[in-house]
Protein: Transcriptional regulator
Amino acid sequence: MSGFVPGDSFLADCPGRLTVELIADKWTVVVLYGLSKGPVRHGELIELIGGISRKMLTQTLRRLETHGLITRHAYAEVPPRVEYELTPLGATLIDPIHMLTEWARANGDAVLDALEADPQPVTHGD
Amino acid sequence: MSGFVPGDSFLADCPGRLTVELIADKWTVVVLYGLSKGPVRHGELIELIGGISRKMLTQTLRRLETHGLITRHAYAEVPPRVEYELTPLGATLIDPIHMLTEWARANGDAVLDALEADPQPVTHGD
DNA sequence: CAGGCTATGTTTCTGATAGGAACCAGCAGG
DNA sequence: CCTGCTGGTTCCTATCAGAAACATAGCCTG
Structure:
């Protein structure tokens, strides 16, 4: 192998690995980013994120809630108002998430550029 | 909204957002982590990662390759030997990835703990 | 008072995707 | 000739994502 020592690896069935699989998700990262500036409403997230359906947003928020990363505060008003907010635990995720998003912002063009340059051999295509 | 200014947001259809969706993926993060120490063979990744099928690994590697994050070097030997390695661009992802994995390693227990504590209302379950 | 509006969430249906297992290539060795 | 090694692909199915319609529940309008 390469330089992996037993205790170093989260590459197995362990809490760390499961947690990576929890947040390493298309919508999860974006939602957490959307919550990184403070409490946000459901509808605000829909507009802010763009492209996510209500279903996926609710589903993602629920998962984060049950994992203790965000809280859900529903005000008993009409029309309903629901705010989501990072928990202290969830707040510690802001830094990693921001590093990722900053990297994407900085290198997004290079990545898409490489994609254009590679006309994808299409090994078994057609 | 909260504190999002127009230029700040990657929350739209832009290179940054697309790139986040590229790497914010269950296997992608783990594979990149597996490659972070140097060139690794296909079979090594299978064992190292654990739980990934050859199909998903190949698929993930191909996607990373076409996006310019890794290179694939196939040696014309028998039995075949194929090594994957981060490109310079891909290497700049190590820091963000490691921050994420370190967070997961540190907080994995807390996350799973919260999951146990929340017996998930099961809104429409059953 | 009927009907529409609001914001959140759920249901339904369908197309895409992940996952597993079997199969393929190509050569070395018994 | 048959087996094994390694990387990769194909097939099939269970699961998931996405879109759109429906549900709720009170307020506002006509």
Q: What stands out?
A: Chain B has six helices and three strands. Residues 52-53, 55-56, 59, 77-80, 123-124 of chain B lie near DNA strand C (CB under 10 Å from a C1'). The domain at 10-117 of chain B is CATH 1.10.10.10 (Arc Repressor Mutant, subunit A). Residues 94-117 of chain B form the longest helix (24 residues).
